[in-house]
Write a structure and sequence with these properties.
Length: 307
């Protein structure tokens, strides 16, 4: 029995298709079919039920599938440990982040690349739910979000830093609010907001839910970078975490005065999985590069607000 045969079987079982699995694995469909047949012959059972249109796991396949996944994961973990011993000279690190976390992540990516140029980085910006699923699918080593990821006992969540939701505008657009801005004062500004579903917007919506405030919303957009470009060249202001403009010139941020305006940064990984040395170094750089990271925690504070 070979690891590649287990890998082929798991991919067919996951996608329920020889055609899709062969494309995913970059091998021919005939090679894929041949290797799985050899695996079945060695085990003495049929793992897959095949017909002209569909592929499904047999009863034997259903029992064998999680075992194959576990073997592959343990093999990957062993390889990761060996790569770590090689002083981060080779390897791959896959990191995901929510759109709101993107600007802060990219600054750390630059610092990481300067120190570890031989580590290949796979980066993705997506929604919290997609990040959760990618972690469970073992597609990500690490995910970065504000507040906690969608609660899942299979995912480990740890606190990086404390932050706040702020009213953000180009320098000079927020006169008279040197220290903080009330929720009611938000109605006095023309707003360009992150689209619903992004974490900064969700935090703002939770604040507004209990307050009867009508906002002057001129624009919504699902790109934080484009949002900052727009706000930086117009009288429009927005609501983002203070870290979103930490490395951007020409902006000012005033904290929103509300107890639910916390946007604490977290990282997440699959519970029980080996956390690569490269991932650990990335987290260290993320903490070092953010001057507002005054408090770090090993585990999430039990009072930590859930998203």
């Amino acid at each position: 029995m070979e690891l590649r045969q287990l890998k082929y079987f798991v991919e067919v079982g996951r996608l329920r298709s020889f055609s899709l699995a062969s494309k995913s694995l970059f091998i021919t469909q005939s090679t894929l079919s041949q290797q799985i047949r050899k695996l079945e012959e060695e085990l003495g059972v049929e793992l897959l039920i095949r017909d002209t249109r569909h592929v499904a796991l047999s009863d034997y396949g259903e029992q064998f599938y999680p075992c194959a996944v576990q073997v592959l994961e343990e093999a990957r973990a062993g390889a990761d440990r060996i790569r770590d011993v090689k002083n981060l000279q080779i390897g791959t690190l896959s990191i995901g982040a929510t759109f709101s976390f993107g600007p802060l992540m990219m600054q750390t990516v630059q610092a990481f690349y300067r120190q570890y140029p031989h580590i290949r980085l796979n980066l993705v910006n997506t929604s919290k739910e997609d990040l959760r699923q990618r972690i469970l699918n073992r597609e990500l080593d690490l995910a970065l979000t504000y507040k906690s990821l969608i609660e899942d006992e299979r995912i480990e969540s740890k606190l990086l830093f404390h932050s706040r939701l702020c009213l953000v505008g180009r320098a000079g657009e927020l006169p008279g609010h040197a220290s903080q801005v009330s929720v009611q004062d938000l109605a006095n500004y023309p707003l360009a907001l992150p689209a619903k579903g992004l974490q900064a917007r969700d935090t703002l919506e939770s604040i507004l839910f209990a307050n009867n405030v009508n906002l002057d919303i001129r624009l919504e957009i699902n790109s934080i970078r484009s949002l900052l470009d727009l706000v930086g060249s117009s009288p429009l202001v927005t609501a983002l975490s203070e870290e979103a403009i930490h490395y951007v010139q020409g902006f000012e941020a005033v904290p929103i005065d509300h107890p639910d305006a916390r946007m604490d940064g977290c990282y997440h990984y699959l519970k029980g999985a080996y956390l690569k040395k490269a991932a650990q170094k990335f987290i260290e750089l993320l903490q070092e590069n953010n001057s507002s990271c005054q408090t770090f925690a090993t585990d999430l504070d039990p009072r930590f607000p859930e998203t």
